[in-house]
Design brief:
Length: 201
């Protein structure tokens, strides 16, 4: 008796994997997520940069206040011609002081020497400000109301009243709409810091 070898029927295996459409959809979804992440990183970097500029502006205003307290007889003068600390700068080159205090002495007690010292301090301070902040605009003045009475926004204008000087500073930045705004064209200060030269005595 002969026996026939019976082979079991073949089971057709189905291929499993991703179709081209599924791969494309995955790539698109990943791309959107990566673009969103890149946008968030760019916004965070911009915010960090602006925060650093605010810290630098505040520190420089504090340094100028210290210089004014050391030369308060000049700093308390309300006439811009007699008080170099009253600054109104938006662009352009800096005017060199008549005396370089690195070379000549500016530590005397005469009014002329005090004025020369103030002129040199302001020139040196403005040079550092321009190197630390991109295209800055600066207004330092006596102002009893540096903020708008209705909107509460800072203003560049000064009323030249009161006994406290105010440092108003802005710099070139990119606003929330992505527009580049130069410091000289800033409609309002970004930092407003009261500074005082002390008392007249």
């Amino acid at each position: 008796m002969s026996t026939a070898l019976i082979t079991p029927p073949r089971v057709r295996s189905e291929q499993t994997g991703f179709s081209l459409i599924e791969v494309l959809v995955t790539i698109i979804v990943l791309s959107i997520g990566m673009l969103g992440s890149a946008g968030m990183q760019a916004a965070a970097l911009q915010a960090n940069t602006q925060t650093r500029y605010q810290v630098v502006a505040a520190a420089l205003a504090g340094e100028l206040a210290e210089a004014m307290r050391g030369n308060h007889r000049i700093a308390l003068n309300t006439l811009p011609s007699a008080n170099p600390y009253l600054i109104n700068y938006d662009s352009g080159a800096l005017v060199a002081p008549p005396i370089d205090c690195w070379v000549d002495t500016c530590s005397g007690n005469t009014d002329a020497e005090r004025l020369s010292n103030a002129q040199w301090q302001v020139h040196e301070w403005m040079g550092r400000l321009r190197s630390e902040l991109p295209s800055p605009r600066v207004r330092i003045c006596f102002d009893s109301a540096p903020f708008h009475a209705t909107t509460g926004e800072a203003e560049w204008d000064c009323d030249d009243m009161g006994d406290v000087m105010v440092a108003k500073i802005a710099w070139t930045r990119i606003n929330t709409e992505g527009t580049l705004i130069f410091g000289s064209a800033a409609s309002r200060p970004l930092v407003v810091i009261p500074i005082t030269a002390g008392s007249a005595s």
